[in-house]
Amino acid sequence: MCRWLAYSGEPLRTSAVLLDAKHSLVAQSLDSPLGAETVNGDGFGIGWYPPGAVAGSIPAVFHSTEPAWNDENVRELARAVESPLFFSHVRAAAGPPIQRTNCHPFRWENWLFMHNGFLSEFAKVKRELTFAIDPSLYPHVTGTTDSEVLFHLALTNGLVDDPVAALRATVDLVERVGRDHGIMFPMQGTVAVADGATIWALRYSTQGRSRTLFHSADIPTLREMYPDAERLSEFGEHAHVVVSEPLNDLPGVFIEVPESTIAILDRDGYHHEPFRSAA
């Protein structure tokens, strides 16, 4: 459906992974070998926290409906922005129209959210799921995607206080409502959420056949593995990325996140937490 990338670590010029990597996110927008669709040309988005941001800092966002590979603004922005934590997303629309309000990442206060996947037969469950959003949050839903509804349901279910529990409660709701409407596999996808300090990345589908998700190995480990790789000098000791598919083909650089798992990335690195057993 889409491709996305999340970075956390020392402040990094976003072009290092959005443009300059062998299989960068912009390259994936035109050629995505592991994606459900090879081309992801229905919009681009980036959300970033400024260097020196403190807890609760509001991220900036930029959205474009142009294909990422053909948008000069994307290249100008990526070479200018430096950030310690940023999200970026290239979209392959699967029904909802191509418009800026449907581009990821979505933002609410200091939170960013993006999604690769879908809620099956969303038209059947849209009304019930949308009405389950807290009334105080409902005015902030400005687009028409299932992903934005998913984000606001997670906020409704306590994302700010406990992201893992909120994501579980949200998926429970999606699956219950879906099955009430005769949908066999209601939930599909990978989700990334950040509060400015931590990234939570979920890989889950009701069917147990989720979209791909990987994260990078630690930079000190990679420098030991590839001592002659000059490109690694661009990254600090705490630099990590979580990606829909690897940014290069070097063995050991990217580690697949298991099915039905939340990968949590903070200053200390990654740890994985089981989400639930695949249905």
Automatic annotation (TrEMBL):
Keywords annotated in UniProt: Glutamine amidotransferase, Transferase
Domain of life where this protein originates: Bacteria
Molecular function in Gene Ontology: transferase activity
CDD domains: YafJ
SUPFAM superfamilies reported for this sequence: N-terminal nucleophile aminohydrolases (Ntn hydrolases)
Domain Glutamine amidotransferase type-2, first and last residues per copy: 2-279
Keyword Transferase: yes
Stretches that traverse the bilayer: none
UniProt-listed PANTHER family: GLUTAMINE AMIDOTRANSFERASE DUG3-RELATED
Name of the protein this chain belongs to: Class II glutamine amidotransferase
Upper taxonomic lineage: Bacteria, Bacillati, Actinomycetota, Actinomycetes, Micrococcales
